[in-house]
Amino acid sequence: MSFKEHAKTSLSSAALSLAALLVCSVVQAAEPKLVVITEPKSQPESFTQAPDGSLIIGSASKPVIYRAAKGATEPKIFIDVSAAEGAVTFLGVLADGPTNTLWACQIIGTGKNRHSILRSFDLTSAAPKLRWPLPGDINLCNDFVVGPDKALYVSDTFGSRIFRLKPGASEPELLIEDRTLDGIDGITFLGSELYVNNVISNNLYRIPLDATGKAGAPVQIWPDRPIKGPDGMRAANGKLYLTENRNGRADAVTVNGDQATVVTILDGLTQPTAIEPAGDILWVGDRATDKAIALPMPK
C-alpha cells in the first residue's frame, strides 16, 4: 500500500472512530411523556417528586413553591411565604417521604448579599417545621440530599461548605469547609459515596467519609469531556444524573474510580438547572423556559 493510500485509510478509520464515539456519547431522548409549565418567569430552579407522584417545584423568582398533581401539566401554589417573609425566593427543594418532610432553601436578597435559610415543611399540609439560617455573612443554601445514614446533607455555594443535619438533631453541623467547594451546587449519594459538583469551576468531586462520618479532602473526578455549569444532580441506577446550565444539556455520568464517562440525554435546553430520577421517569427542568420535562428513564 502506498503512503497516500495508507494515509487515506488511516484518516477514514479515524473519522469512523470519531463518528462512533460521538454516537456513543449522545443518547437520543424519547419524546417527553409530560411537560409541566409554571407561571411565566417563575424560574423553576429545582424540583422533587413526592411519594404520591406529584411534582414539587421551587421558584427562583417568587416566594412560592408549586405542586403539580401526578399527570397534571400546570402546578398550583403549595407554599406561599410572601406574607411572612416578603420578597424571598427558593432554590433547592427535596421531598423526604419517610419523614413526611419537604426541605427547601429559602433565599433572601440578591448577589453576594444573599442570605439563606434552611426550611422544612410538612409534605402533606405545608405547615412550617424547621427554620435554620445558615451561619456567616456570606452563604447560599443551594441543594441537599438525604444520605444512607438518614442525615440531610446541605450544599452552601458561597460558603464553600457542606452541612449535615443528623436525625433528631435540632440544627445542622459543619461537615466540611474547603476552598475547592467555592461554587458547590449539586450534591448526592451514589451508593455510600458522597458526590458534589461545582457550578463555577465546572468540576465533579467525591467527598470521602470515614467510618465515623468524618469528611476527608475532596477528590476530583475527571470526566471524559468538559461539563459546563453543572447544576442539579441526583443519582439512580448506579449513575449520576446532572444538568449543565451553560451547555443546555442533561447528562448521565458513569463514575469509575476517579474517571467518569458523560453521556448526553437531552440537548438544546436554554438553562437547565434541575433533574430528578423518579422510577421510570427522568424529570429535567429548564429554568429559563419555566418547564419541567418528563422523559422515559434512560436504560
List keywords for this structure.
299 residues, mainly beta, Neuraminidase, eight-stranded mixed beta sheet
Strand-helix topology:
Layout: H1 3-25, E1 34-37, E2 44-49, E3 55-59, E4 64-68, E5 76-80, H2 82-85, E6 88-96, E7 101-108, E8 115-122, E9 128-133, E10 141-146, E11 152-156, E12 161-165, E13 173-177, E14 184-190, E15 193-198, E16 203-207, E17 219-223, E18 230-236, E19 239-244, E20 249-256, E21 259-266, E22 272-278, E23 281-286, E24 291-296
Parallel strand pairs: 17-21
Antiparallel strand pairs: 1-24, 2-3, 3-4, 4-5, 6-7, 7-8, 8-9, 10-11, 11-12, 12-13, 14-15, 15-16, 16-17, 18-19, 19-20, 20-21, 22-23, 23-24
What features would you describe in this structure?
This protein has helices spanning 3-25, 82-85, and strands at 34-37, 44-49, 55-59, 64-68, 76-80, 88-96, 101-108, 115-122, 128-133, 141-146, 152-156, 161-165, 173-177, 184-190, 193-198, 203-207, 219-223, 230-236, 239-244, 249-256, 259-266, 272-278, 281-286, 291-296. The chain is mainly beta. The protein has one domain: Neuraminidase (6 Propeller). The protein has an 8-stranded mixed β-sheet, with no helix packed on it. Strands 1-24-23-22 form a 4-stranded antiparallel β-sheet, with no helix packed on it. Strand 15 (193-198) and strand 16 (203-207) form a beta hairpin. The termini are far apart.
